[in-house]
């Protein structure tokens, strides 16, 4: 089978998390959603929890099982036995949780630890579902993508928080405001997020009084207000006051290394990440919140968001990681050389034809369809009248 130069159209699972938009994915991918259930994420890849499937020898087969038949053929040498990236579309109606993805060493240790504790992989309190880090990148497909990512310059956080008449909050803030550093910011956030309920309620009460006194709500206070509507009891709604608030321009991408605190708030995004489902949550969720991990997994430096400016027809310039990502604009054609890294191509907003003229093999893809191209697929000609989004193994 290793000489087969065939490609693999994918059937991809949809995740119906409650924050998902009902209509965005059905419209983009051309399917019906008669129950109007939330359609949050499309997953393209070989993650064991929810793999794509394809057809091999007239049989449906999960992508990981296909790759395992001949990893060298499908992935090339030195790329292990599974796809190192996971490719997604996110349709965000309501804000996602405040979260971080652990670095590799922490993921390995956490995965072993939770195995030793016999916490089942599907248990709500299971944080480490695999031993991988999860650097990720979010491409803004719509023009309303908003996110919280990393910490603001300390002076900005301190001046915004000091303006709030709340003795309880000011007491917690004092070590940080007197001596701003990653360590005192960590102290402040641990104290805030783990404060006893009466203190949290007092701070939330004071925050709302302050909000009511503002003549206009700037974007930070607007988002704080939105978060409060979703999670009225959750002290994590203060995040817009100490994190970078970002309206990501359409076509640009946000690179989020492991250890960076983030919450995606709104919009349609295309996401590519290391093939991991390790998420440590600190708030803005009904799911399990693991505050004991905060100090261990979060980087507390003030960092500007790492924005990758729009790039067309050549890969976004990510730092070294598990993937590369390319946006091909409409009405182009190109030749994919032999022995290109394994990749998944997604077509949106039009169609594409992928042809091997020597072997007389051709694949027609419509908007919303995707295809896996093995490392050893040989050379193909690609002509497209839609936008292509290409996820590849980083080389
Ligand atoms: Zn994330």
UniProtKB/TrEMBL annotation:
- Alphabetically list the UniProt keywords: Isomerase, Metal-binding, Zinc
What is the organism field in this record? Entomospira culicis
The Mannose-6-phosphate isomerase cupin domain sits at: 323-390
Which biological process terms from the Gene Ontology are attached to this UniProt entry? carbohydrate metabolic process; GDP-mannose biosynthetic process
Which NCBIfam families does UniProt cross-reference here?
A: manA
Which reaction(s) does its UniProt entry say it catalyses?
A: D-mannose 6-phosphate = D-fructose 6-phosphate
What are the required cofactors? Zn(2+)
What residues sit in the active site? 281
Family listed: Belongs to the mannose-6-phosphate isomerase type 1 family.
Gene Ontology MF, one: zinc ion binding
This chain belongs to which protein, by name? mannose-6-phosphate isomerase
State the Pfam families in the record.
MPI_cupin_dom (PF21621), PMI_typeI_cat (PF20511)
Q: Name one GO cellular component term.
A: cytosol
Answer whether the UniProt record assigns the keyword Phosphoprotein to this protein.
no
EC top class named in words? isomerase
- The UniProt annotation places Zn(2+) binding at 99, 101, 136, 262
SUPFAM superfamilies recorded: RmlC-like cupins
**Which EC number(s) are documented for this chain?**
5.3.1.8
Keyword Transit peptide carried by entry = no
Name all Phosphomannose isomerase type I catalytic domain ranges: 7-153
Details of cofactor binding: Binds 1 zinc ion per subunit.
């Amino acid at each position: 089978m290793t000489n087969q130069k065939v490609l693999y159209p994918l059937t991809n699972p949809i995740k119906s998390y409650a924050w998902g938009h009902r209509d965005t994915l059905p419209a983009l991918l051309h399917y019906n959603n008669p129950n109007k259930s939330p359609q949050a994420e499309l997953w393209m890849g070989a993650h064991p929890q929810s793999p794509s499937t394809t057809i091999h020898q007239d049989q449906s087969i999960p992508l990981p099982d296909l790759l395992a038949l001949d990893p060298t053929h499908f992935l090339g040498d030195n790329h292990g036995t599974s796809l190192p990236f996971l490719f997604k579309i996110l349709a965000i109606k309501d804000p996602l949780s405040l979260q971080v993805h652990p670095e590799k060493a922490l993921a390995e240790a956490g995965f072993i630890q939770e195995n030793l504790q016999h916490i089942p992989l599907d248990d709500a309190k299971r944080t480490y579902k695999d031993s991988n880090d999860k650097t990720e990148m979010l491409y803004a497909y719509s023009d309303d993508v908003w996110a919280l990512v990393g910490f603001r310059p300390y002076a900005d956080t301190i001046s915004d928080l000091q303006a709030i008449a709340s003795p309880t909050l000011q007491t917690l803030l004092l070590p940080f405001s007197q001596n701003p550093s990653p360590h005192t910011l960590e102290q402040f956030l641990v104290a805030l997020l783990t404060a006893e309920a009466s203190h949290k309620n007092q701070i939330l009460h004071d925050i709302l009084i302050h909000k009511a006194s503002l003549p206009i709500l700037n974007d930070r206070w607007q988002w704080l207000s939105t978060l409060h509507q979703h999670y009225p009891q959750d002290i994590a709604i203060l995040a817009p006051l100490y994190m970078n608030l970002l309206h990501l321009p359409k076509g640009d991408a946000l690179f989020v290394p492991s250890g960076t605190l983030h919450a995606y708030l709104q919009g349609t995004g295309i996401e590519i990440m290391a093939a991991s489902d390790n998420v440590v949550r600190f708030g803005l969720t009904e799911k399990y919140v693991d505050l004991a991990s905060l100090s261990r997994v979060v980087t507390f430096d003030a960092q500007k968001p790492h924005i990758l400016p729009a790039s067309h027809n050549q890969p976004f310039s990510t730092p070294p990681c598990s993937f590369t990502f390319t946006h091909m604009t409409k009405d182009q054609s190109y030749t994919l050389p032999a022995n290109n890294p394994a990749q998944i191509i997604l077509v949106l907003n039009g169609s594409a034809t992928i042809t091997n003229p020597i072997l007389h093999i051709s694949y027609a893809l419509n908007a919303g369809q995707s295809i896996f191209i093995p490392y050893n697929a040989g050379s193909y000609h690609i002509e497209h009248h839609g936008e292509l989004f290409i996820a590849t193994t980083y080389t």
